[in-house]
Amino acid sequence: MTLVREQPEHRLRKFTYRDLVEMERAGILGEDERVELLHGNLITMTPVNPPHAWTVSELHKSFLQRFAEEAVVVSQNPLRLSENLDDDELPLPDVMLLRQRPYRDHPLPEDVYLLVEVSDSTLTKDRTVKLPLYAGVHIPEVWIVNLVDKQLEVYTEPRNRDYLARKTYALTATFAPARFPESAYQWLKASPE
What is the b/e burial string over 70-102, where b = at least 16 CB atoms within 10 angstroms of the residue's CB? Predict the structure, then answer.
């Protein structure tokens, strides 16, 4: 007689925003630790490569120069997709242009004028996971700065989990965001190497 040993069942633990808050309070997650929550999966953000970091810094600087009086500019801060503490999504966009108001918690979708993801090794995730999330909560405009193909993709007109309009520009093109049509600007002065 052969004994068959049952293998233990492996389960992945899914997390919520509430779990992240509790882990931070308990010291499991450091206050400055960069994590994002996508479909309940906790993703630790590793230090970014120099072209990615440079692009985020340049966009942040350009947005501050152009929109200092009209909006709040934040980089690499969480975006709550709902007020539900059991939400299993907490993306960490690279740059956001937000309406001006005091923020005691992370911004919500209705606060976002424009959101930017700088994509290199994350291009597939940004297009197939994050973009549908943003469309689903009606973020009006999303830019993917595609460092792989050296282009800037602009998505507008969110409907369900998709964007109906997409325009593509050179990285150093001059154009205006949909929310501020009078604000044509060269957002990146040079292409990152």
Answer: ebbbbbbebbbbeeeeeebbbbbbbbbbbeeee
